[in-house]
Amino acid sequence: MYLISDNVDTLTGMRLTGVDGVVVHERGELKEAIEKAMDDESIGIILLTEKFGREFPDLINEIKLRRTMPLLIEIPDRHGTGRKKDFITAYVNEAIGLKL
Q1: Which residues contact 27 (CB under 8 A, 6 or more apart)?
Q2: pLDDT at residue 78 above 60?
């Protein structure tokens, strides 16, 4: 695993669990960090803080659609998640077109 974070606190916490990573703030830095991590064959999962998904959804979605490995997963940062409580149900409803 490899973490690309927007803050030092999340990176520090993940380092305590043995996950290495980098802190970036700008779109160009994010794109470069993701591409570098994707080219590293020892990385199977790239963790991104959710803030990047909210700020740069076009970049994240483009990479997710273009590449299957490594997995690109968005995680909450130290401030918690920005998702609604029922985001999984809403996601399934949208995907299958039925209300659960």
Answers
A1: 55, 56, 59
A2: yes
